Write a sequence for this structure.
């Protein structure tokens, strides 16, 4: 177990940033802390780093209790959102910094730093100043600088937020590849749900200082347990419906005139909130098959790869995406909606 | 390994404290430590005895619990325990030790118990206690260090003993050398001549006509009280310097005026000039035998008058002397107004004048209030100009001086007046904070701001130029006359060029056994140079450490510490000077008449500015740089040395220069502290001016200016510039 949080609370004066969370991070995995801004994910990361000390609770890293230890005394290192490269040192000096502070000789530090730069593909940039590098290169130097210390845990604080979209995809693939190649334990903070799904073994979603849900990317997307989760992990339409249990594994969800059978072993009977994924709504010309939901197109936008529709129905306004762009519906068209059971999720009462 | 570091530190500190308690004299020695005479009497002589010997041999039983606390600390450091337990034990033991230390130091003095109820409680004491010496001081430092280590072990200050130690050091030194002396003034103001409390006396001292009379307003040649005099002068000076400073700042930043460099140089001059030089120059031009009077007498036969002496003279001198300070404050403010906001205003149909009036000026308001505060406080703290030019127009700072130094020798009165001065200063300070409010319009962000500053509207530009340029010319002319004044025989009577004044001040003769420094000024010159050179690095170090703590560390009491440093910025030098006299001429800290008290006064007088400069510089360096260093195994001191300080070089230069220059030029605080042995340049010059010996005074002042310029260049050269790569780099960066 590389990182262990037990009932950790962090308060600033009266405000509570983290309200009692517990989780563990297994060695060799990449775990993402995901959540909207202000949810406490960065505070949590900084508590792992030792840059903040918890108000209550216990933190262990690699089996050692580090609750009251500062950053220097913990076996972690961190890649900052702003990269935090020392502007008065060149690339090699930056990467050597941590090695020198750990007591390595100048020669040994330089040797290890060069290996680190090789890992991130910046072999020939030793003498450059940070200001002479591009954003992606600065990012790599920051990663190399943290990597060469061989920490028990490597922390990333929104590492891609200062890069443009194309570079972001490339860098996140590089980080994932590096993590798997070297078997690193990584805790990664982001507010971007797609980025989290792309890099993580496991995701911990935080909301208002608490853990909302944790699990594999597939778990969280396909089986969100709360309306917040359904909204936050991908898009979804929250609607009210009636749930009736058919057998231990299946329920019938009644939305207006339309009923659909959904695989679910936990939902309770009665009225409840149901989340419908926009890609699970097949839009067809009315009249559609029996049991389909009738509606009227309120908005239609063409996005190249797919169409986006806003549709008025008896169950409420629904947002749907549709891959057929050749003959789109127009505003005012009567349509019939067929729901796929994989994208209909009972998320609570 | 690393986590053990604070543990072994606690052992080391406990040992140091115990060794000091056994092997160093506990009390202060008459002749100083370096004589070595104390070594033989370390056990037997009551004067020289160590802490342990004082307890065992000389009946100072009250020191025993303090030393016992140290032994407990050593035990806590050595026994096996968790961090938390060890920290708690150290904390309890060191806090108890500190409290007992302070209690005995304050409770027992030269004449036994210091208060009646203590005598009643414990009985008469037949022994006495003099000022703290090396042993006592080391034990005090040890207890403070152990307290910090205890706090760090318990997880305060991010678990870092260095940070904890730095915070404790700064807090303790501010308490000891700023808060305590000021508290002493309060006490002194309520005491009668025999040290008994008499609250009615304060009212009696302050409620006199000499202080509060308003007769000058009713006309007929009546005089106002010194309190009103001080207040009128300060309000005028604050408003005047702010207006002039703003005019200069606007010209430099918002017009295409061609001589901006010259204006900048003009602002450096008053900073390296002793504050009364301007007053002296005014006397040379407008005084009784000054140029203007002589010309009027020669051309029109008008009798020379003494009209420059009084309110108008002091006011003029202060405006001239402090406008550059206001300019320096305001130029940052004007530059800080984001051009983007002004451009936004213009795209919203506001013309240049409306933009200036409704966007730029309101954004500058906190800065203007700040400049006013600085002018106000500089004015009430000013001692040099009122004493040179005031004539009958007395102000509080001169009144205090005469109460302490003059024939009156009335410490109670001095303390009461100092209290009044302090109230004025703090009143202005709180009023300014109230006006500015807590929400500042900080417009300097880490984000790039690509807009261009909007040029001033024509009317405003013309007004600024017509105010500022004649004023700049006037200042230059005065400096010119002051300079020339050092090279003529007797100003007003005999304008023969001469080097006599320089020779008199700085003569060096060659004798058989080397050089003899026969000039009258050498003694005070070398003392000034030596003490300023000691004080400057201390000032810079303490100021930057405090700034680092305030900007970079989060800990309980941070807000209080910040407030305390800002507050001490508002305390006038005269008050500090008087306070030091009161606080440090009796045990437990007895250092009146030494060089140490002057150095301490320099350091704590000038530290707040170092703190401010350091904070400003540090908040421009992204915090994540420090945090990166911490997560890269750099402990706090290493982070400070390898990351923060290299990026702070300009601020270090600034703090060193300021610490040195202010130490050389200050008058108000040190007039009370100098002795025949430790005479300072400024006080020496003031005495020459009061005696009418202008030539020598000017010659000496010019020499001081040259000295300071040389030192500034040396510091610049020694500390150097920061290296940030070939391309300009933004030190900013953000964290959500």
């Amino acid at each position: 177990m590389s990182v262990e949080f037990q009932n950790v609370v962090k308060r600033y004066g009266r405000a509570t940033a983290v309200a009692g969370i517990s989780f563990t991070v297994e060695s060799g995995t990449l775990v993402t802390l995901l959540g909207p801004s202000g949810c406490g994910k960065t505070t949590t990361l900084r508590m792992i780093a030792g840059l903040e000390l918890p108000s209550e609770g216990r933190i262990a890293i690699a089996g050692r209790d580090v609750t009251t230890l500062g950053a220097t005394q913990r076996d972690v290192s961190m890649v900052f959102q702003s990269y935090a490269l020392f502007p008065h040192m060149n690339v090699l000096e930056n990467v050597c910094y941590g090695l020198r502070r750990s007591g390595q000789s100048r020669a040994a530090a330089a040797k290890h730093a060069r290996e680190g730069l090789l890992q991130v593909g910046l072999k020939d940039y030793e003498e450059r100043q940070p200001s002479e590098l591009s954003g992606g290169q600065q990012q790599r130097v920051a990663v190399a600088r943290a990597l060469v210390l061989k920490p028990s845990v490597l922390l990333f604080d929104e590492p891609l937020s200062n890069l443009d979209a194309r570079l972001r995809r490339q860098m996140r693939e590089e980080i994932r590849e590096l993590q798997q190649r070297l078997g690193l334990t990584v805790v990664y903070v982001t507010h971007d749900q797609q980025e989290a799904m792309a890099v993580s073994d496991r995701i911990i979603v935080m909301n208002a200082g608490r853990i909302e849900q944790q699990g594999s990317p597939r778990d969280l997307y396909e089986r969100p347990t709360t309306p917040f989760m359904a909204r936050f992990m991908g898009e979804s339409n929250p609607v009210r419906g009636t749930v009736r249990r058919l057998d231990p594994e299946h329920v019938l969800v009644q939305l207006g005139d339309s009923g659909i059978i959904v695989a679910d072993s936990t939902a309770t009977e009665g009225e409840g909130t149901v989340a419908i994924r926009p890609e699970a709504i097949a839009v067809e010309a009315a009249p559609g098959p029996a049991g389909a939901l009738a509606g009227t197109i309120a908005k239609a936008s063409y996005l190249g790869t797919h169409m986006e529709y806003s549709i008025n129905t008896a169950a409420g306004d629904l947002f749907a995406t549709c891959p057929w762009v050749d003959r789109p519906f127009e505003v005012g068209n009567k349509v019939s909606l067929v729901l796929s059971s994989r994208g209909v999720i009972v998320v609570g009462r | 390994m690393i986590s053990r570091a604070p543990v072994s530190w606690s052992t080391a500190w406990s040992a140091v404290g115990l060794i000091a308690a056994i092997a160093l004299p506990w009390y202060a020695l008459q002749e100083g430590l370096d004589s070595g005479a104390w070594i033989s009497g370390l056990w037997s002589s009551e004067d020289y005895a160590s802490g342990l010997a004082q307890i065992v041999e000389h009946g100072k039983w009250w020191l025993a619990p303090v030393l016992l606390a140290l032994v407990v600390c050593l035990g806590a450091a050595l026994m096996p325990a968790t961090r938390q337990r060890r920290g708690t034990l150290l904390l309890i033991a060191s806090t108890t030790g500190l409290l007992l230390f302070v209690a005995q130091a304050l409770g027992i003095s030269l004449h036994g118990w210091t208060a009646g109820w203590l005598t009643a409680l414990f009985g008469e004491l037949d022994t006495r206690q003099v000022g703290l010496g090396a042993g006592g001081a080391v034990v005090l430092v040890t207890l403070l260090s152990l307290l910090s280590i205890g706090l760090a072990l318990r997880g305060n200050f991010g678990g870092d003993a260095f940070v904890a130690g730095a915070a404790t050091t700064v807090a303790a030194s501010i308490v000891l050398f700023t808060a305590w002396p000021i508290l002493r003034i309060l006490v002194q103001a309520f005491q009668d001549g025999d040290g008994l409390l008499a609250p009615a006396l304060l009212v009696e001292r302050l409620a006199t006509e000499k202080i509060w009379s308003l007769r000058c307003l009713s006309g007929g040649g009546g005089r106002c009280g010194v309190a009103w005099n001080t207040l009128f002068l300060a309000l005028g000076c604050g408003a005047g310097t702010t207006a002039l400073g703003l005019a200069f700042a606007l010209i430099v930043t918002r017009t295409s005026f061609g001589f901006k460099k010259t204006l900048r140089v003009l602002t450096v001059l008053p900073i390296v000039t002793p504050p009364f030089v301007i007053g002296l120059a005014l006397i040379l031009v407008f005084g009784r035998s000054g140029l203007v009077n002589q010309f009027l007498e020669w051309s029109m036969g008008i009798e020379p008058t003494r009209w420059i002496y009084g309110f108008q003279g002091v006011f003029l001198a202060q405006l001239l002397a402090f406008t550059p300070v206001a300019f320096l404050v305001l130029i940052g403010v004007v530059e800080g107004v984001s051009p983007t906001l002004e451009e936004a205003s213009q795209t919203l149909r506001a013309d240049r004048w409306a933009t200036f009036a409704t966007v730029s000026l309101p954004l500058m308001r906190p800065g203007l209030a700040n400049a006013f505060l600085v002018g106000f406080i500089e004015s009430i703290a000013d001692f040099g100009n009122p004493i040179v030019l005031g004539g009958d127009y007395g102000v509080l700072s001169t009144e205090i001086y005469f109460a302490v130094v003059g024939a009156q020798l009335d410490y109670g009165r001095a303390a009461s007046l100092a209290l009044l001065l302090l109230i004025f200063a703090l009143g202005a300070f709180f009023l300014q904070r109230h006006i500015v409010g807590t929400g500042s319009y900080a417009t300097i962000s880490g984000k790039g701001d690509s807009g261009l500053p909007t040029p001033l509207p024509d009317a405003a530009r013309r007004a600024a130029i017509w105010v500022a340029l004649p004023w700049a010319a006037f200042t230059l002319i005065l400096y010119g006359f002051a300079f020339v004044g050092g090279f003529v025989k007797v100003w007003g009577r005999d304008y023969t060029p001469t080097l006599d004044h320089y020779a008199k001040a700085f003569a060096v003769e060659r004798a058989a056994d080397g050089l003899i420094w026969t000039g009258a000024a050498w003694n005070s010159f070398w003392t000034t140079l030596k003490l300023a050179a000691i004080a400057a690095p201390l000032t810079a170090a303490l100021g930057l450490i405090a700034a680092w703590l305030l900007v970079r560390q989060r800990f309980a009491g941070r807000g209080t510490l910040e407030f305390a440093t800002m507050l001490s910025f508002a305390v006038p030098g005269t008050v500090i000077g008087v306070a030091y006299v009161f606080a440090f001429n009796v045990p437990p800290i007895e250092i009146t008449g030494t060089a140490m008290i002057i150095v301490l006064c320099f350091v704590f007088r000038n530290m707040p500015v170092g703190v401010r400069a350091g904070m400003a510089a540090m908040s421009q360096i992204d915090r994540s740089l420090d945090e990166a260093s911490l997560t890269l195994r750099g402990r706090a001191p290493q982070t400070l040395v390898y990351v923060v300080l290299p990026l702070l070089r300009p601020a270090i230069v600034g703090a060193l220069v300021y610490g040195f220059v202010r130490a050389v030029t200050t008058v108000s605080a040190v007039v009370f502290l100098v002795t025949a042995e430790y005479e300072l340049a400024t006080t020496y010059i003031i005495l020459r001016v009061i005696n009418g010996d202008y030539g020598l005074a000017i010659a000496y002042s010019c020499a001081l200016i040259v000295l300071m310029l040389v030192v500034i260049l040396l510091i610049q050269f020694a500390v150097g510039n920061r290296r940030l790569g070939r391309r300009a780099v933004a030190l900013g960066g953000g964290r959500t």
Q: What stands out?
A: Chain B is about 65% helix and 5% strand. The domain at 483-571+606-666+681-736 of chain B is CATH 1.10.3720.10 (MetI-like fold).
